[in-house]
SidC homolog (Legionella birminghamensis), 796 residues
Amino acid sequence: MRIPLREPLSPRYIYINKGIIHLMVPVVGGQEISTDNTCRARLALKDFFEGGALQELNAYKDALIFDIALLEAGNPLRIEKEGRLTQIEAYISAASSMQSGSEHAPMSYNNAINAYLAKPSNLYSIQLRPRYQDSFSIVINPAFSLERKNDATGTPLSALYNAMQDIFPSTEIALQDPRSVLTTAVLEALPESPGFKKIRKVLTQKCKELFNQDIDFTSYFRRVGDKAFKQMVDQNHINELLRCGPTNPATPEENIDALLDTCALRMWVTIPANTSFFYSIPDNIPVDIKTESLSIMTQFFLANLNVYCKAKGISTQNFGVILDASTDLSKDLVQLVSNTLSTGGEVEKAICTFCNAKAEHFALSRALNENDITAVQQKFERTWLTVTGTDENPHMDDFMILDTETAGEAVKFVVHQGAICANFAEVVDPVAAWATPEYFARVRTDFAAHDGVIPSQNEVVVTEIDVEIETLLTRLSESQLNYLPQTVQDECRAHPIYPSMYFLKEVARGSQDVAEAFLDRAENKQTLLKTPAIFTDYSGRTFNCTAYEYAYWAKDTHMQRMLERHMDEETRAQMLTRINAIEAAGLRYQQHGEEHCSAHFDFGPLKQALQAFVNGYDGWCDADNLIAIQEAWIAVGKAQCDIPAHVAQEYCRKDRSFAPVPTFKEESLPRGLTIYNWSTGCHDSWFSQAGLGSKFALLRWSFQVTANLVLWPTSEGVKADLAAISRLDEVRTEELLQARANLTPKVMREIRGRIHQFFQEVEARQSLADPLLWNTEPEMTDENITPVHSQSGTGL
């Protein structure tokens, strides 16, 4: 059966490259230029760090856990997903620590982002000076900026802004249609007194350069009546059309017009009326609006030019600061823009030419050539269309421009899912990443080698696999089944083995209340108790046995007692036979692809790991051998990965800790598996911890809430846990005898009960007249004789 996996192809914020997960931080919306204003960008960062990232990471983690449950141990796909789960855990830990108010990360995420923006990169900030400013506008290390403050009298301190306010009100904007642009360009390129052939050649070239049009000015088709014939075009034909001659020759402009009218009549259909945004400003609008529009557009073009020069290494200076420092330089530039607009010239080219002429002022390392000017103009047009196409920037205050052509280590920012992003590994606080510094270093190294293109989908993610229904029922919990398509859910629940497998999985996972509720609803309760099936516990052990056999093997006393309450005599007898067989030959199971057989779960590995830590701790501390301490603690974590659910639940119960050592004789066992992660400040589930046994272990000691994830425990805490686990092993082993007594036939239980009652009465009356009576049945002690109770009682 084809089953869809839950790991998403296009998760928010998450990019996978060659198995390494990158968490992308959205610095600002947009691609080539920011489309968010300052407030919106701050909100996006707040959403990311104050919950959005953690929500996505935890959802991704849940999806991985589901997928891993479907796959066999050792399966290459499972190994990949387990690796990603470990990485996701590292991100969850670090992202939690970087939230506001976290004691683990003194540097807030705002400070981290600002510090990163201040570094050289391929993202450039610009800040303009509009008439009405956004008071919340904040720019870090601007590539271009104007002085936004005023003096004591309210006069702006920006020389460039003042020059634009003085000159632009009287500027006349010429109507610049494509034909006028072409004619002007041809006239400017012609030599003095040009001949007809020269005019025709330059006109052909400019049509190609300006409009990418290939026009044949040597002939055209002339219609006479209902017929058309090819007319050759030369000076005589043009003179005939213009009625000119040697005594009254046509001017170059008249020749250009005649050639266009004869050979390029349809050229203007596909060419827009205006070729520059500067000419999109109507000349007949109110003066203050025209002035502000020209001011912002001029600043915006200068900012794009400035960013281009910085990105290409042509200049390192802030052109806005340079212009503000010189009233004369600012006036000369603005007057040039005004004059060019009045004559219908190319404003963008005029500004670039001005910068070349004033190269010493702008510290240009070389002159801007035609390719540079074209690139700047195209970038200006694209970015202007982007920022004016949204209502996000009504003030036109500040923007971020991404240089998409930069390569190598300077590429610190990329576009991902519609936003300009930084890599989380680059901005993570070292304190927040203290648990996994090597991992984040590896992420940074991998990111430095990328080509600048971040795909929206993670192609390495496998979306579906073939799984048999029996495998689904064996490996997935009831809640996990709900993530399957409805048709698959229905087929699973209709399968004959569904009740047994579901019931057995809940028993193996320590879900006592759920298992008992299932028994209460079951019509075939005894069949359910007696039927073996294949199931897997949290530690990856796969059994083929009954629920009671597993509880007996795991030494889960509380689960045993619950199951016993639901058994009839026939079921008890069968379970007694089965546990006798376990004691004699052991119970077989598979784990990590290997066969195992034992009569009971062995607490030995966990006790030995705890004891080894206690034995070596003082010597390692004296020798400053932190590696040995860490390795010993990780060994404890590995043993903790292998414990049955009920042992983990003893760690996690909220009503008492491990110090002082509990009696473990409580009437019931709360079946929680919640642990507290000190590194993230969050709660999690014991068996969902990808780093347990590889990066950390769990300590209970005297903590009053639950088990705690710690990386560097104290010897005293581990001693307390060792004493508690040793006591738990002793108590649960002794209670196995009670299980055998509870499964004996009813008649035997009644006889034992009466004998036990008799001796209690004798002891109460202190009648010791016949002391030999006490020695005739030495095996009948409080430890192995149980009073008679009804099936609903708690003593069975």
